[in-house]
UniProtKB/TrEMBL annotation:
<feature type="domain" description="Terminase large subunit ribonuclease H-like">
    <location>
        <begin position="196"/>
        <end position="292"/>
    </location>
</feature>
<dbReference type="InterPro" id="IPR054762">
    <property type="entry name" value="Gp19_RNaseH-like"/>
</dbReference>
<dbReference type="InterPro" id="IPR006517">
    <property type="entry name" value="Phage_terminase_lsu-like_C"/>
</dbReference>
<protein>
    <submittedName>
        <fullName>Phage terminase large subunit</fullName>
    </submittedName>
</protein>
<dbReference type="Pfam" id="PF22530">
    <property type="entry name" value="Terminase-T7_RNaseH-like"/>
</dbReference>
<dbReference type="Pfam" id="PF03237">
    <property type="entry name" value="Terminase_6N"/>
</dbReference>
Length: 356
């Protein structure tokens, strides 16, 4: 119940809002009305709660993410966004205002979604420790207290909880990816492709065309899509012809063999006899492969300088992939790892055959 009667040592509703009164019989903590109102004036709900039958001109959303475990879980973050776009926005009335108060746990949290997709947003960002090393408010959290509390704390949590720097920025797998302006033509051995077909309807097909430069790879083109196979087979085949791919490796797992055969047939129908299509079964553990090859990827794979504009979804999939936690999709990093494995495998074989 909402406390309305004044009491010594206790702040009640009437102390803060002296000109209004809670309606008798409608003073529950999660839903209450004011005297004279025919409808409820306040409703407390959550992403798993209900807002059916309610409209609002002011919506306040406060700290949806409970902990770092949720911050690492892309599925939880997406559910928050779905709840906001599909439920809460439909509850708003003309002239509404939204107030979102939250720790910036992740770049793809609700706050990040709002900042990226909406205009007329006022962003207020307070850090516990200022850029000059002083405390924001010594009375609330002194520098001495901050240092004591965070001395043995996970640094990613320190940055998120106190400095409003998303935890996934600290925990992302690929920290330093390289870019290029021009491909060094003299180093190119072959133009190749690596294709990871979509396992399920929720997965992405990821086809990467790259120039094999013996000890490095330069990304030329990327297809990263959820379109069905009848569309992607044609798209991939046309891309192989357009970019004059010499060798295309296609994973045969989960329907990939049929996909590869159809792509091979279609390439020939398009008059492309240059591309050799090979399919193979990928038996390695996906997560282990991605993690163990991440250093090589960062040191030896080069992306176009504007790749975030060329392939925005692929760019996001790569640059936000987390070392720990539950990633929504791993198709991009998996295909990138495949490129790494094909390049490094070829180098090892060349060394064994002394044909460098």
């Amino acid at each position: 119940m909402i406390a309305t009667e004044k009491s010594t040592g206790m702040t009640v509703y009437q102390d803060i809002f002296p000109d209004t009164k809670i309606k008798y019989g409608e003073a529950s903590m999660n839903k209450w009305a004011l005297e004279g109102s025919q409808v409820a004036n306040y409703l407390a709900t959550s992403p798993t709660g209900t807002a059916t039958g309610f409209g609002a001109d002011i919506i306040i959303i406060d700290d949806l993410i409970k902990n770092s475990e949720e911050a690492y879980n892309a599925n939880v973050l997406q559910k928050h966004i779905d709840w906001f776009t599909n439920t809460m926005l439909s509850r708003t009335e003309k002239g509404f205002k939204l107030i979102i108060i939250m720790t910036r746990w992740a770049t793809n949290d609700l706050a990040g979604f709002i900042l990226e997709n909406f205009e007329n947003v006022e962003h207020i960002n307070y850090k516990a420790i200022n850029e000059d090393g002083s405390a924001l408010d010594e009375d609330v959290l002194s520098l001495e207290d901050f240092n004591f509390k965070t001395k043995h704390m996970d640094k990613a949590i320190v940055y998120a909880n106190y400095q409003q720097e998303p935890i996934d920025v600290q925990g992302k797998l690929y920290q330093n990816l390289k870019t290029y302006v021009e491909i060094p033509k003299e180093k190119v051995r072959q133009r190749k492709a690596y294709c990871d077909t979509a396992d399920t309807g929720a997965d992405y097909l990821c086809n990467i065309i790259y120039d094999d430069c013996k000890d490095s790879a330069y990304i030329v083109d990327v297809i990263y899509t959820k379109e069905p196979m009848e569309i992607t087979e044609e798209l991939v085949a046309k891309t192989y012809k357009e970019y004059q791919v010499n060798l295309a490796d296609i994973e045969s797992n989960n329907g990939g063999r049929g996909f590869a055969r159809n792509v091979e047939r279609r390439t020939k129908e398009l008059g492309n006899y240059k591309t050799v299509v090979k399919w193979f079964h990928q038996s390695g553990n996906k997560q282990s492969r991605i993690l163990s090859n991440s250093a090589w990827v960062q040191q030896n794979i080069y992306f176009p300088v504007d790749w975030e504009n060329k392939w925005p979804e692929f760019y996001k999939a790569i640059t936000t992939y987390q070392k720990e936690g539950k990633n929504a999709h791993d198709d991009g990093p998996d295909a990138l790892t495949g490129v790494c494995e094909k390049i490094s495998k070829g180098t090892v074989q060349a060394i064994k055959g002394v044909a460098l």
